[in-house]
Amino acid sequence: GQVRYSVPEEAKAGTVVGRLAQDLGLEAGEAEARRLRLVAQGRRASVEVSGASGALVVSSRLDREELCGKSAPCALRLEVLVERPLRVFHVELEVTDINDNAPIFRVTEEGLNIAELTTLPGSRFPLEGASDADIGANAQLTYRLSPSEHFSLGHQENNEQSATLSLVLTKSLDRETIPVHRLVLTATDGGRPSLTGTMELVISVLDANDNAPQFNQSVYKVKLLEGSELGTRLITLSATDVDEGINSDIIYLYGRHVTEEVKEMFSIDENKGEIILQGKLDYEEMDSYEITVEARDKGSPPLSGHCKVLVEVLDVNDNAPEVSVTSLSVPVPEDASVGTVVALLSVSDRDSGANGRVRCWVWPASPFGLEATFSGSYSLVLREALDRERVSEYEVEVRAEDGGAPPLRARRGVRVPVSDVNDNAPAFAQAVYTVLARENNAAGAELARLWARDPDEAGNGRVSYSVAEGGVGGGWRPASSYVSVDAESGRLWALQPLDFEELQVLQFEVRAVDAGEPPLCGNATVQLFVLDENDNAPALLPPAGSGPEAGGVAAEAAAALGSESGTLWAWAAWGAPAGQVVAKIRAVDADSGYNAWLRYELWEPRGKGPFRVGLYSGEVSTARALDEADGPRQRLVIVVRDHGEPARSATATLSVSLLEAAETALAAGAGSSSSRSAAGAESGSGAASAATNVWLVVAICAVSSLFLLAVVLYGASRW
């Protein structure tokens, strides 16, 4: 009979397929002796007989697919020979299939082209299935498609393999959404474990002009500095059309509602989508622009997409602040209170933000300041008290600076005159004026010019002068009887000639009154010193009486003036010693000082006579002892001179009788009687003369002292 064996493919070399010698009925050891062997029949059997054991073993790799392909079952027919005697046995070896081959597609990638929109769902596209070299269940293939919302797999199975396999469109395609679909088709056999094979399906979606161009933004915002150069590129717009080919070629155009103003300011490159500045931007005229742009493809029919470009013009600090005066209240009274509003100002800057934020101040800082009333409005107010006499007008400069970088500045000058109020009384240059005037001046002669300053202006500073009431003397003669002052010029002039002997010092007040409302006044004291002129000649006084002199030898004549001759009489005894006072000439000068300082000179006889005269005392005394040779009578002419310039003088004639001593005594007695009788008649005049002499000395000293004091004060004031 025929011996059958079965061995799985891919069994390892040395695997025992069967005990061939035993199955053939050979005894142990007989197989080797009888040379049990396989007879080759043209193709490799991949099995052999083991010589020692007589077993059929695998000698090389068994591949059922190589040996039998798709035939089933796969049986190898072998011839086995034994010798002594020669016999032939037929052995059938079945190689069983194992799942050692995965399904294989003819190509690893298959491409399909499907048009979008026009290909309807349910459409089928045939696919080539996979093959599996195995047989039976190991070659039973199932298919699955990678998940997809657009495709599914359609196939029919039979006992062998898929008879038909197709790709089914389940949802319309959109090339712009997914231009290429990549799916994986997987084939799985029925082996244990199962093996798989894959093929990639590349499905290209063919374009249709079903998509309008789309901008990546519906609104573009562009910021551009004002004053930018012409030709500046604002933005390059980019619209995409997910179509392809001519359907995706895009041109850029202005929208239908774009104004001519925008078209004049900007241009658009229809191919590149560049928006170019072609006009001058001015933030103050227009701070923003809205540009509607259309992107149109070249499909048929053409489709369009739209966007807006919002151009924000950024402010550049190209405008300086502007300062204007909206109201000005001038002049400002100098007595205006602190806080008085002088002017209203408006400050503006056409720029914005920090560029338009303006800081203002006043220069110089005082006496005015700025106060903000509300945005952009300021008040120029008074911060300090004004004094027109110190500053009569202010040039105030209002300065403004914006917050730009670099900052721009502006300035506006405001002229603020200060009006006068009568707040200053006239003031003399000196509180006390010392005026020196010579006596005997002409009536109307100018004595001095007084000046009072009033720093006010106009009527407030117009000064009029007047002499205030004051007087001199026991009878209180008013000063206005001596002097007057010009009301406008302040010239002090004499109303009458002044007489030093009558008036030495005149003190009065001069009042200066302005024309303000109410009027203010100022006073100054004027001390008018009358300077003595040598206008009085010395006057001879009558003799005071007679009496014994120091020597007791002679007596001064009690004489009387002759009513016609003006001669004085005196007696002297012969033998009278030298130095004996014979008589005393008395004189007075109504002037003062040097003008009243008298000196006595013996005018006749000239030469060496018997008598001499005291230079300043006026005493006539003997120059030597008298004798009879001197004659009975001596006639003396005495000149009394003052020290004035020119000097004035008076002449006295003294007749001296020379008698015996006894006669002299009698003459002296008679003279005494006569003197007493004369004294009775002239007692009043004698007392008055004595008092006059005392007051004359006092007046001379006082006037000299006042004169010296006046000179010192005058020099000190000038210094």
Automatic annotation (TrEMBL):
It comes from the Eukaryota. It is a single-pass type I membrane protein. Keywords: Calcium, Cell adhesion, Cell membrane, Glycoprotein, Membrane, Repeat, Signal, Transmembrane, Transmembrane helix. It is found in: Cell membrane. It holds the Pfam family Cadherin. The chain crosses the membrane at residues 694-716. Gene3D superfamilies: Cadherins. GO terms for molecular function: calcium ion binding. One of its GO terms (cellular component) is plasma membrane. GO terms for biological process: homophilic cell adhesion via plasma membrane adhesion molecules. Its main location: membrane. Residues 6-105, 130-215, 216-323, 324-428, 429-540, 576-668 form the Cadherin domain. This is PCDA5 protein. It comes from Malurus elegans.
